[in-house]
Amino acid sequence: MKFGQVDTPENIDFTLPKTHPETFRVLSKYDTIETPNFFVGCAKWNKADLKGFYPRGTKDELEYYSKQFNSIELNATFYRNFPASQFEKWKEKTPNNFRFFPKLGQEISHWKRLKGVEEVVNSYIDNFSNLEEKLGTIFLQLHANFGPKNFELLENFIKSWPKTLPLAVEVRHKDWFEDKNVFTDFTNLLEAYNVANVLVDTAGRRDMVHNRLTNNEAFIRYVGANHPTDYDRLDDWVLKLKEWKNAGLQNVHFFIHQNLEVESPLLAAYFIKKINAEFGLKLTIPNQKDESNNNGQISLL
């Protein structure tokens, strides 16, 4: 993902901001649980982007990917509305615990800009529904020039969204974040309709990692900079998620991107190893052989 890319990431202050006070208020409504629901994945599974990830001779990329990760941020649906039969095939190929988090198409968010989109939205939803229990949160990513002047369009879209389907929204125009009143109106809208506020951690847009949750879901799109600091940044996220877990967070959806996507699985493996240790999880560590040591713990080769 090129969004937020910079030429000199070493000059960026990647310190995560303090948790927004309203996040603690939102999470206080929920009971703390011992182990949050973690879904961690990449943005795509095709071999061209994840070069070197698949063993030689791999016949089905999704089938292999879904044994390494428990989720996918399905960016492919942004570019086309796949037929229902395709989602059925994807569902059949993946394990029971696997989840797809599909992006609504650019026709909705970028071309029509939420105007007159009822028919096409319903078409996407109908096709997504063929994933059945493997359908995760659907997310809407708005164009960077879709600013607060379009608030009413977004409000109407959210109000008309089916209440039974989880939705997350990502806004990119800087005015959503720079004006305190605008940001408050936006996040209050999401909270009122139980819509997740997407957090984007990328080098060139530090305003988008505002740490304001609007429901019991941390939907995080992490964009590495192909720089050694990428790993330190993931360490910081482990600590932040622990803070939120202690405050009542129950659902973590964490998707790892890279400007050069070939490194995404490497970052993901590092992150999964960390959260396994911190939260007592047993998520598969991608492309790692594991052996039990004398303490029954997993050691990486």
Question: What's this entry about, in short?
Answer:
The chain has 301 residues and is of the alpha/beta class. The chain has helices at residues 21-27, 61-68, 84-93, 106-111, 118-128, 151-160, 175-178, 180-192, 229-247, 264-279, and strands at 37-42, 71-74, 99-102, 138-141, 167-170, 196-197, 199-201, 218-224, 251-258, 290-292, 298-300. The chain has one domain: Protein of unknown function UPF0759 (TIM Barrel), CATH 3.20.20.410.
Number of helices: 10
Examine the secondary-structure arrangement and name the CATH architecture: Alpha-Beta Barrel
Low-pLDDT stretches are 290-301
* Arithmetic mean of pLDDT: 93
End-to-end C-alpha gap:
30 Å
Number of domains: 1
Order of helices and strands: HEHEHEHHEHEHHEEEHEHEE
Overall 3D form? globular
Secondary-structure content class: alpha/beta
Let me know the number of strands. Answer: 11
For the largest beta sheet, what order do the strands appear in spatially?
A: 3-2-1-9-8-7
Describe the sheet with the most strands.
6 strands, parallel
CATH fold topology: TIM Barrel
Task: Indicate the percent of residues in helices.
Answer: 25-40%
Going by CATH, the homologous superfamily would be Protein of unknown function UPF0759
How large, in whole angstroms, is the Cα Rg? Answer: 19 Å
Query: What is the percentage of strand-forming residues?
Result: 15-25%
Task: Indicate the CATH class.
Answer: Alpha Beta
